[in-house]
Amino acid sequence: MNHEQRQRTWGLAVTVLAVTLTGCSTVTEPTPAASGVTPAGVTAPSEGSAAGAEGGQEEAASKLPGLPSAEEARTALDGLKVATQGSMAGYSRAKFAHWSSQGDNCDTREMVLQRDGSDVQRDDECRAVSGKWVSVYENKTFTVAADLDIDHTVPLANAWRSGAGTWTQAEREAFANDLTHPQLLAVSAATNRSKGDQGPDQWQPPNQSYWCTYGRSWTTVKAAYKLTITQDEKAMLTKMLDTCTL
Predict the structure, then answer these.
(1) Radius of gyration for the chain, computed over Cα atoms and rounded to the nearest angstrom
(2) Distances from the Cα of 127 to the Cαs of 98, 124, 139, in angstroms?
(3) Which residues pair with 106 in a beta bridge?
(4) Which residues have CB under 8 Å from 210's CB, separation 6+?
């Protein structure tokens, strides 16, 4: 995800465009997994650390805004329209303006880093200069903010194919900067690039213990914006929600 700056939020109300939001994403090269070397600023999970890892993931999930219970997500999933994906004709990331200022020199990227991290310290320009973040997709801990991307749970191109192509610029900008729903998440650049614009039927978080939260998040965003899902997408979301114990 490239480093860009703009903002905006779109609420659930049918006729109201809500608070303008912001963000900015830094992209780094994925770390080669085959090297066997843990890079500086990254802590790989150790053996016997499962309990701590689950606790960290639960904490990360609790920070996501608007995350429903599994039962609420199942109900929302049943209400989503199933349809084939639309065309990519006319798509451009520039039509989903992000990221923008939040005030006090902050943008949406910095807001998400602050929300998702712990012990985050900022400089005078609101940039995170220290802290700790768990990239829940693969359960790795990072201590350098530049190693993280801000992922759109429902990717911009996926949204375009499932209904956003008919939206106004303002609506797309709001979607790209939404801090009200579980749409933005600080994750490693490697997993963000691996995911790309794929739906849950094509890409799933390698860390299966996060599938419940991922399914709840994806379903919530699609429902909030009245986006369609494919039959394969619905089947995988059902499988993910079936891993929930909540």
Answers:
(1) 17
(2) 17, 7, 24
(3) 103
(4) 57, 136, 137, 139
Measured CA to CA, the distance from residue 17 to residue 109 in angstroms comes to 21
**CA nearest neighbour of 224 among 16, 85, 1, 59:** 16
How many whole angstroms separate alpha carbon 114 and alpha carbon 118?
Answer: 7
pLDDT at 242: 98
Residues pairing with 130 in the sheet: 121
Q: Which residue has the tokens 């990717």?
A: 155
Closest among 41, 192, 176, 24 to 110, alpha carbons compared? 24
Peptide bond into 99 cis (omega under 30): yes
pLDDT in tens, 151-193: 999 999 999 999 999 999 999 999 999 999 999 999 999 999 9
Q: How far is CA 234 from the centre of its chain?
A: 19
CA dist 157 → 53, 123, 170, 208, 246 (Å): 31, 33, 16, 24, 31
- 3-class secondary-structure state, position 156: helix
Q: What is the pTM of this model?
A: 0.78
Phi, psi dihedrals of residue 71, rounded to the nearest 5°: -65, -40
- Reported confidence tier of residue 231, pLDDT bands at 50, 70, 90: very high
Q: Which helix (H) or strand (E) holds 122?
A: strand 118-122
Residue 92 one-letter amino acid: S
Q: Is 88 within 8 Å of 157 (Cβ atoms)?
A: yes
